[in-house]
Amino acid sequence: MIYQGSCHCGAVKFNVECPDTIEVEDCNCSICNKTGFLHLIVPKQDFTLLTDKEQLTTYTFNTGVAQHYFCKTCGVKPFYVPRSNPDGMDINIRCLDTQPKNITIVKFDGQNWEQHAHTLAHKSQGNN
User: How far apart are CA 113 and CA 93, in angstroms?
Assistant: First the structure.
């Protein structure tokens, strides 16, 4: 299935391809805890940005590997390139206009990221 998503103001729009049954992570790291991000990690080829990249601003911290993309207008972060899966895209399912029918939310201990990041590596390989 292809799902369309956007930021709050609609300046950033995208499509993501994923099944109707998905597992997403609820991470307790400092940035995810403050933004309420629910993670759907997909291979990059399953993500399509529909608007001009000029609508986005990028934030990085720590190692600089993760590329957090925010709408320049409303400030919402609908997706980013995660440090755990730099070959993938991480979608905030809360930014999807319609959501998959079956969503399982699992806790992810991002406060201890180094110990747990390896459990996410398969997600950008299309083996969700």
Answer: 21
